[in-house]
Design brief:
The chain is an alpha/beta fold. 35% of the residues lie in helices and 11% in strands. The chain is built from 17 helices and 15 strands. The strands form 4 sheets. The chain has a 6-stranded mixed sheet with strand order 10-9-8-11-12-13, with helices on both faces. This is Fucosyltransferase. It is found in: Golgi apparatus, Golgi stack membrane.
Length: 547
Amino acid sequence: MEPQINWTCLQCFGWQPKSYTIEIFTSWKNDKTNNVKCFGFLRRGNGFGMKTYSKVGACLIVFSVVLIFIFRDKTLDSITRFATTSFFATGSEDSCLSRNQSVLYRKSSPHKPSSYLVSKLRSYEELHKRCGPHTDSYKRSIKQLKSGQIDHNSSDCKYVVWVADCGLGNRMLSITSAFLYGLLTDRVLLINEEQEMVGLFCEPFPTTSWILPEDFPFKNKVSGFNQKIGHSYGNMLKNNIINYSTPLLPSYLYLYLSHDCGHDDQLFFCDQDQALLSKVPWLIMRSNVYFLPSMFLMSSFDQELDKLFPDKETVFHHLGRYLFHPSDRVWRLITKYYQDHLAKAEKRIGIQIRIFHPKTSPFEYVMDQILACIQKEKLLPEVGTGKSIAYPSKNQTSKVVLVTSLFQGYFEKLKKMYGEHPTKTGEVVAFYQPSHEGRQQTWQNSHNVQAWVEIYLLSLSDELVISAWSTFGYVAHGLRGIRPLILYNRTASDPPCGRGFSLEPCYHTPPIFDCKAQTKTIDTGALVPHVRHCEDLSWGLKLFNSS
């Protein structure tokens, strides 16, 4: 199979998708009429004219420039490029426009993944290809799962099945955590994709799927798994059904790692418990948190993690860009909105507003906090006291602000303020808000599609202002790879916001006990230099570079 790049609506070099469409191929293709299609141009097989040579020459120049544009930074081995080349190397026919086209919208990441991480991801892809759904190894593992007993001769594949909980931001963070756990323990990650998540993401691994098959045993019961289920690891330990010396372990265990998990559930983060869990082929994990930082406190993983991530602040940035590519239907929504509203701005600023408790976060207080933040950080020019000027056309916009919120009031006030008064610097500022749904609708597919569109659009910003505690904002700035300005969630509004000290998301509900003593409460944010407390949540944990 001939590898090919098929990019439509190429925007670079001034071409606009509404007026021009070009397809780029890496090979010549003959059809039955002996015509040859080269980079979207067609020449007849019965001879060349000067116009034909001109067209072929032009398309070759365009193709060369595009390659230079994509690979202009020879020192950068970006994880996005790695994810793309994985599919080309295998000749995959995967339909995922965003995997190829994201380079045209995103700025190149300044954060280089380690060569060890790249090698580890290649090895994982081979593991997933060998053990993924419908393979012989998978079928043998399913028989073992149904039996309830471990047969070490039946299959050498092990699995972690992720089960959804909470909103899209929480889901993306917990999937990333589960994937890293799979990398560290040689387990294949499978996603229990429910209706509300269908069609959000492309398949991340070439020539295989990460979706849990419909014929998976007790699949209809997986989504109902909760903290009280008897077959969970925490409950089986608490009830002395299993212990560290149990000779015959079950073929599967539930892991409950959501925000309200208890002490026994959190024993997952202890080295001796990992030794036990390593013997169980199937782990079914329910989580809605970014539990990844706690794995950096485990001695059984620390050497491998040091090799994978010498830069501790880029774990989600690299893994998130590797795993999460918008599906074609989502990508079309993203690129249309970008072209219509954001493309021509000299600078793009994202403001993400999440209100958790309306009674303690009244509108005027939050609005004043946003204005104080953008003025303190000089993100936008101040407005004068003069009368309104004519509202600018899109061609005049120097700065554009993307506002994302469930409510419209913040956007309307900002737009009115800058629409009624000219800026003191003469800069033109435009404001846009893609949606305002009023309330979170986690279990609606259309709501999650819109959420993913807005997260991705935020991740294309040059500057980001996000709400404290918000996983939606965490994902956006993590994919972008910048330290955001965080709107502090507190009654005192001075300062109104602060620059994040790390690119990483926050783990909101980490364990606070000593694994060796188990009854002793300790400060897990003071054990190692690179795991400390979050800027926006004093008891949370996140990754920092040691310095």
